[in-house]
Design a protein that fits this description.
single chain; mainly alpha; Four Helix Bundle (Hemerythrin (Met), subunit A); about 75% helix; about 0% strand
Length: about 130
Amino acid sequence: MSVAQTRAAQIMQERSSELTAHQVISLLFDGALERVQQAKNCAISGNEEDKKVLIDKLVAIINGLRSSLNFEDGGDIALNLDCLYDYMVNKLGESEEEVSTLTEVAGLIARVKSGWDAIDPCSGQAA
């Protein structure tokens, strides 16, 4: 079985010229959550090959989020997110077969996404 493109990736591909940086980051979070759920489903069903591909894609998305951090303007928040993203990548690398690890990473991504989505991209203030 091949691993299909996420819905978030499809949106980015179709509307790349229309998206703001804020929307792109939000879509990366969506894609990460989609990949982690797919990886959990593969882990539960015993599909090790697709699970590994999905975890690799998830790690790539997390690294993409990490590379978007602005340490100059982001201060402690950017540093804390960098540490959190590093933790997630290390956790995924240590125990790819653990559904509990995937659940933990999904929860962390969801919390960060919730905070991101609360930001008003026009004013830079929380919505």
